[in-house]
Amino acid sequence: MKKKNYNLHEPSSSITDLILSIVCFLWSYDLFEKYILFNSNILLLCSTFFFILAFGSFLGSFFHMFAKIISKKLIGFNMKLAIFISGLLILILSFIYIEIIIKHNLKNIFRFLFLLSIVFYFFSALSYKLYKSLIILIPIFIFIFSGILYEILNNSIGSKEIAIGFTIITCGLIIWKSGFSPHKYFNKNDIFHLISIIGLWYIYSGYKVLFF
């Protein structure tokens, strides 16, 4: 009879992921309240962005803690879920900048093209064709970067905070990719979660006032 493994998977990563989930939910709620007050599509999209992050981080916290106890297959499922959520987040970001910089008649065309790209991204990434999936996302990344740059050049309120936030998260991704883990109870995931909280706070602060 096979002995069941009752060891927790990554308890520290679970805690930092849960903290990330809580703050993202609070930011989402605050932005949604502002959407109700001002009826801005941009605020609704920003609120949705943080809500998806909160939901994804909450699930990530569960997987980090209990994946090995329940089933090792859950660890692989967690990766697929991360791919799905990352695609949704990129799509929402692209929709935010469609609202900001694209004229009304072209908005739906861009939305459809980006949605189609994300669908291809899902199929490519889940087929373990990682390089192909990243190539598919390049036009969307360029568009989002152009949107951020457009806001900075127009001296839009909050644009600098948003740029700082994405820069911080990019640095966090580089550290995570490097595999830097000072301790088994403070590994690359913990570092990335904590850096992300700082970067996302800047992004939240920027989006909160961007509408104005």
What would your notes on this structure say?
With 212 residues, the protein is mainly α. The chain has one domain. Helix content is 83%, strand content 0%. The chain contains seven helices and no strands. It has helices spanning 11-38, 41-70, 73-101, 104-126, 130-153, 159-178, 188-210. The chain starts with 10 loop residues before the first helix and ends with a helix. Residues 1-6 have low confidence and may be disordered.
Topology overview:
Blueprint: H1 11-38, H2 41-70, H3 73-101, H4 104-126, H5 130-153, H6 159-178, H7 188-210
Task: Give a summary of the structure in a few sentences.
The protein has helices at residues 11-38, 41-70, 73-101, 104-126, 130-153, 159-178, 188-210. By secondary structure, the chain is mainly α.
- Give the percentage of residues in beta strands: under 5%
Q: In terms of per-residue confidence, which ranges show pLDDT below 50 for 5 or more consecutive residues?
A: 1-6
Report the count of strand segments.
Answer: 0
**Count of separate structural domains:** 1
Distance between the termini: 64 Å
Discrete helix count? 7
